[in-house]
Amino acid sequence: MKVFFEKADFDEVKNCRRMPLEEKLALMADMIRLNALNTIMCAKSGHIGASFSATEILTVLYHAVMKVDPSQPGMKERDIFILSKGHAAAALYSVLASCGFFPVERLVTFRRLGGLEGHAERSVPGVEANTGSLGMGISKAKGFAWAAKRDRIEKSVFVLVGDGELQEGQNWEAIQSAAHWRLDNLYLLVDRNRIQTDMPVEKVVNVEPIEKKLRDFGWHVIRVNGHEPAKILSTIRKLARIRGKPKAIILNTVKGKGVSFMEHPWALRSGRGLYKWHDGLPFGEDYRRAWEEIMGRIRRKLAKYRIPVRPPVFQPELGERPGPKGESLLEAFSEVLVEVAARREDLVVLDADLAESCGLREFQLRYPERFIEVGIAEQDMVSMAGGLALAGKLPVVNTYAAFLTSRANEQIFNNCSEGSKVIYVGHLAGILPAKPGKSHQGVRDISLLRSIPNILICAPSCGSELKRMFEFLVFEHDGSSYLRLEHNQPCVHIPWREEKLEVGKGAVVAEGEDAVAIGYGPTMLSEALLAREKLAREDVSLKVINLPWLNKVEKEWLRREIDGFETVVCLENHSVKGGLAEEVARIAGRIHVIGVEGYGRSGEAAEVLAHFGMDSDSMARRIREFVKE
User: Fold this and answer.
1) pLDDT confidence band for 273 (50 / 70 / 90)
2) Where are the domains of the chain?
3) 12-17, long-range: CB within 8 Å, 24+ apart, which pairs?
4) Distance from C-alpha of 267 to C-alpha of 284, rounded to nearest angstrom
5) 195-196 and 199-200 strand pairing
6) CA proximity to 433, closest of 488, 356, 354, 491
7) What's the CA gap between 358 and 350, in Å, rounded?
8) Hey, do 332-484 and 504-628 end up sharing a CATH topology, with the first three levels equal?
9) Cβ atoms within 10 Å, residue 152
10) Does the structure show a pLDDT above 90 at 103?
């Protein structure tokens, strides 16, 4: 059955002579909105709110403004579009498919291995730049615009940013120099939907007055309704005549536009002050309601102008809720954070617009006077934490591992050089969950921190170990630390004994005689225990060790534990380069390493682990081969 509107359907609408252009664009925007909804529901993952607020501007750009040719996607004269808010990839992919850059059938591969990556990615035909980590888009667009000027090519460069994204400092560096260089072929489009993640922008860090700020930097600025295609189109045409300065359009939009119960501000009120549909999905009856609301408008317009398009058929299975997930370390972290805060009045928590995702909401509600929301500004957050530490506070810094350790690496280094104590918590560490793709997968964090003196890097494997470890970092450890927190918790029980928590020493979770596997965290230890069972059926006995200290290994302890083993394997939920394996190899000599090679990939957990040879089946096969060598 038909799931998506196809390119031929969009061509029928565009070729309808009876229909005014503004109505064509509005109709196609809804067709793209429905395709984006189904794209996300096929993946059971994605960002509906941000995709829906951007649908009209994307439709206008690709179907009425930009000079692009799907048959020649690399032609020099093409106009350029960059989706800086890369989490709205479902909308961008749906627009590209509607133009014919790739068959609409590929939309079902969104966030699957070998398919359409979870955030905007150049591997997808028509996408000009990789985005996902916020704040980079204007700079990349500026590069395209400067090159076009230098090469004397007449082309326009458009970049779409979120309003909350403007909290990221790199944007303002790019805005400043773009005006200095008078890049009048550059168009900044601000999706002003007033919601970032799950809270109003003004309650996180207010970015207004955007219009005045841009004008003061030397930009020509216009503000329009971002859901009226005719006004968007006329505004872009008007701006094309402006010379000598870059141009900005502030698009007043509604997050979740097109589905009444997802629209801000109604959805914010119904969600008790929190926006539900940033990355939340409509299951069951909610999916039916959303689908029928969009399709209802489409059918009325098709009928009104007698356009011969056969709409997609409702697929109730797309609205089925996925199976239950395993126990989350996030719950244990949330609990211990609140418990420890009751005993340490100097403890303060900093967040970069991910309070819900990082398990901080309970602390925020319990201790609002000790909760600091800095917005999407990781470098600012980390340096502020440094100042707080020097002022006698104990800062606990939170955001995704991929952003914290890379974006703010210099700031972490600087803080550590001052000898103060900060606890950094890198959430979403490791390759899982894999659906968001490489921009969000924390597989470089250990390597980025290992060269910083006097920081302790640790990774708990279960809730009990996490609680004891966090208490140790707060009450016993003297100095800064990095707590590597995996949000994926497999169902295999990982034995842990509280008395074994000694820096540099791990614990044996399963005995064995033929090979020893050293790992950390719930994902790899769980897969190792499953691999151990499979190897046992082939008379290969595997010893499994949990070593949670990733940059400090006690030599004598390790030598005792691996004594007599010719096969030593280090299991990395990280790149094979720069992680725990290098600490182990310094002591043990030659070892084997299983981990992430190359860049991360979007996909289901099982298929991505298998792709990198990190699942239990691959692990058992590889260890068997190591033993035979």
Assistant:
1) confident
2) 7-319, 332-484, 504-628
3) 12/307, 12/308, 12/309, 13/307, 13/309, 14/63, 16/305, 16/307
4) 18
5) antiparallel
6) 488
7) 11
8) yes
9) 6
10) yes
Q: Alpha-carbon dihedral of residues 10, 16, 19, 21, nearest 10 degrees?
A: 60
Measured CA to CA, the distance from residue 247 to residue 145 in angstroms comes to: 12
**Cα 283 from Cα 376, distance rounded (Å):** 29
Q: 491 Cβ partners below 8 Å, 6+ apart?
A: 326, 327, 526
**pLDDT, tens digit, for every residue of 555-596?**
999 999 999 999 999 999 999 999 999 999 999 999 999 999
**Nearest in space to 378 (alpha carbons), one of 404, 341, 346, 409:** 404
> Across the strands, what pairs with 400?
427
Chain centre distance of CA 585: 32
Q: In what helix (H) or strand (E) does residue 1 lie, and over which residues does it extend?
A: none
Distance of CA 472 to the CA centre of its chain: 30
Residues 6+ apart with CB under 8 A from 325: 488, 489
What is the architecture of the domain spanning 7-319?
A: 3-Layer(aba) Sandwich (3.40)
Cα(268)–Cα(279) distance, integer angstroms: 14
**How far is 474 from 346, CA to CA, in rounded Å?**
11
Q: Is the model's pLDDT at 304 over the cut of 90?
A: yes
**Model-level pTM?**
0.96
Contacts of 23 by beta carbon, 8 Å cutoff, 6+ apart: 301, 305
Look at residue 545 in the predicted model and tell me its pLDDT: 96
Q: Residue 437 — left, alpha, or beta (φ > 0 → left; ψ -120 to 50 → alpha)? A: left
Q: Is the pLDDT of residue 389 over 90?
A: yes
CATH for 332-484 is 3.40.50.970
Q: For tokens 């667009």, what's the residue?
A: 141
**SS3 (DSSP) at 196:** strand
Report whether 239 contacts 187 (CB < 8 A).
Answer: yes
Backbone φ, ψ for residue 560 (5° rounding): -65, -40
B/e letters for 576-586, b = 16+ CB within 10 Å, e = fewer, are bbbbbbbbbee
- Residue 251 · residue 192 · CB < 8 Å: yes
Note whether 540 and 479 are within 8 A (CB): no
- Residue 200: asked if its preceding bond is cis (omega within 30°), the reply is no
Integer-rounded Cα Rg, in Å, for the chain is 26
H helix count then E strand count, the chain: 24, 18
Q: What is the largest CA-CA distance in the chain?
A: 83
Cα-Cα-Cα-Cα torsion 305, 101, 86, 428, nearest 10 degrees, comes to 120
Instruction: Say whether domain 504-628 belongs to CATH 3.40.50.920.
Output: yes
pLDDT tens, 121-131? 999 999 999 99
Closest by CA to 581, choosing from 450, 460, 423, 402, is: 450
CA 562 to chain centre: 38
